[in-house]
Design goal:
By secondary structure, this protein is of the alpha/beta class. The protein has one domain: Ribonuclease Z/Hydroxyacylglutathione hydrolase-like (Metallo-beta-lactamase, Chain A, 4-Layer Sandwich). 33% of the residues lie in helices and 27% in strands. The longest helix has 15 residues. It binds zinc ion and fe (iii) ion.
């Protein structure tokens, strides 16, 4: 399947640095990790759309904060979340697990469990000629999520799974952290030209009020030190180092 031209993915920048992704197909829409509800409701109503599904990558409040308000507006909406999170995402009505295949907006979507940031974080992978990955807080452009509940090994293995996806996969992360991540990466590798070029590009986008995301997996393989880490030791060193960076 290919994203047809009726399809579009729109990012809403909310709170400090969250991005709510809206995935639209004709008159139907799905929302990924609605941190808050108001701008989502406004967008859907002003474009006369129907909210078909809410996709939750994990339970943190900056990802589920708007969900209950959206359910009030659209009581038939599918709320898709990890079956392991029935306690922390209690309003889910379609519980999923690693490897599940779903049809959302007439598209095939695969659930990929990517634990580490939390103990049951999932990602949603749209199998297309131009694949799309809604990755939540597992991977950021030039960075990766903090290891809160899992182990470094789990996070390292989650990144390994991401690396196996097609290199043209567009990755939609839930935070706009790119500039800070690149500055940290450059402090580690001051002579890395790929990082310098990317930082310039990102500063340009920020100056013109554009999002720096999505990012392409092929590009991340060049600039993301966490994806480039050769082994668990290297990954652990980088992640612990980044935790101390402000
Ligand atoms: Zn989070
Ligand atoms: Fe978050």
């Amino acid at each position: 399947m290919e994203l047809n031209k009726e399809q579009k993915i729109i990012g809403l920048r909310v709170l400090n640095d969250n991005i709510i992704w809206l995935w639209k197909n004709n008159k139907s829409i799905a929302v990924i990790d609605p941190a808050i509800s108001q701008p989502v409701i406004k967008y859907i109503k002003s474009n006369d759309l129907n909210l078909e599904a809410i996709l939750q990558t994990h339970h943190h409040s900056d990802h589920i904060g708007g969900t209950e308000e959206l359910i009030k507006e659209w009581p038939n909406v599918k709320v898709i979340a990890s079956a392991k999170e029935k306690d922390r995402i209690p309003f889910q009505n379609l519980s999923v697990k690693d490897g599940d295949n779903l049809i959302i907006l007439n598209q095939e979507v695969q659930v990929i469990e990517v634990i580490g940031h939390t103990k049951s974080h999932i990602a949603f992978y749209l199998k297309n000629k131009n694949p799309v990955l809604f990755i939540g807080d597992t991977l950021f452009s030039a960075g990766c999520g903090r290891v809160f509940e899992g182990t470094y090994r789990q996070m390292f293995n989650s990144l390994k799974r991401i690396k196996k996806l097609p290199k043209n996969t567009l990755i939609y992360c839930a935070h706009e952290y790119t500039k800070n991540n690149l500055e940290w990466a450059l402090a580690q590798e001051p002579t890395n030209n790929n990082l310098k070029i990317k930082l310039r590009e990102v500063e340009g986008k920020i100056a013109s009020k554009e999002l720096t995301i999505p990012c392409k997996l092929a590009d991340e393989m060049r600039i993301n030190l966490f994806l480039r880490a050769k082994n668990l030791e290297e990954f652990t060193f980088l992640r612990a180092n980044k935790d101390l960076w402000v």
